[in-house]
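Give me the fold.
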Amino acid sequence: MTYNSDLLDRSKRHREKQKNPDRPMGKKPDWIKVRAPQGKVYEETRNIVKKQKLTTVCEEAGCPNIGECWNKQHATFMIMGEVCTRACSFCNVATGKPDALDAMEPLRVGVAVMQMALKHVVITSVDRDDLKDGGAEHFEKTIKAIRFKSPDTTIEILPGDFKGDMTSIDRVIAAQPDVFNHNLETVPRLYPTVRPGARYFRSLRLLERVKEKDPTQFTKSGLMVGLGETMAEVTQVMDDMRAAGIDFITIGQYLQPTPKHAPLDRFWTPDEFKELEKMAWGKGFLMVSASPLTRSSHHAGEDFAKLKAAREAKVIAAE
């Protein structure tokens, strides 16, 4: 196998930075900066989340878009606790031994969705490798609770990989979320340091399985850039995603949460994100979102409407 010099240089820099985890994180460029969250609707959303004793990935992962999303009454609920059994080096969620599942959590999520009058909701979770089914039943119950409390709300889920267990995966697919999202996060070469508990092709297989069991469900996956990957590697991931039938790709800039997290290699420029977007559209994705501040659940409701419209247009064109 032949590697180009750019890839080798990036690999070397990545290894060197990993040896010094307490390095400074660097100054963010102007295109990354966002305004501090504030506003009446933001506070109302925050109060509903607190009243229902729910966890959001918006808070736990320190998402830069929290102010914008909460002011639009958009939130991504994180179920099954605040402690993850894995230790991905990019993620700011705590790692350790989780508490037992809260049996009432699915209902509280359903109530919160109803109270916020959400048209579209995103449900993600910590990884629960301590559970035999990886939390598949809990996802199923949460989807059912939302359908019961708010039947017109469309549901997007963002689960872990369930360690590749097809029985668990099939159970979640059978609950019929409208969008099944599972992020690849980075290129295969960086998995050992960035996502050590996961397997690249296991995640691809999960998304491929969704299309096999229920072709009507939209599939979605996301990447972070800025960890040391090359443009060629990102392009290859796009091809792998399309081969697995993935409908929607998101690409955003990695932001290092603390000096102890995975090292930031560089900030990709807005022009480079435009190039990524153009390439992704050219590969046949139904929906593409690529920008420095793009995150998996950012603009999820608006993007779901565009996804449906794109599929309908494709069907009409084929007739």
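DSSP finds twelve helices and nine strands in the chain.
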